Amino acid sequence: MPAKEPTWTTERIEILKIHFSAGLSCREIANEIGVSRNAVIGKLSRLDLTREKKPEIRRPRAKTNRPRSVPRLQYRILRKLFAEAAPAEDVVTIHSEQHCSLLELSEERCRWPINSPGEEDFCFCGDRPLEGLPYCAGHSRLAYQPASRQRVARG
Length: 155
Description:
Helix content is 38%, strand content 3%. By secondary structure, it is mostly helical.
């Protein structure tokens, strides 16, 4: 049985060093020498040959006129809502004259359900919702309570 030639002959190592210093990629060097890309990476590591990392240039992103992401927009709306003076009572009764059925429901109406589904007088609030949210101001306060208020209400 004939002896197997070593993968990294002196000639291949010299070619590796020349191509590496010329700036060729590991894939390109591997194709030239006739070995795998991983073999080139491993040999470069064992020879302690590294390229200096170029400082990453961060380009400023072009400003677009697109709206902010929905969760971020909702967070800002809710933060503003809770910054306003909240009603003194913890349990707030919200009176609506705009009740609507499921068929009348749209993005222009508060989607807070009134009573339980299946009951004869089941409907939705129907008031004008806050922009970017499905509920009116009163129902948004109920639906999106800050963590501190939730702990008090549960405790």
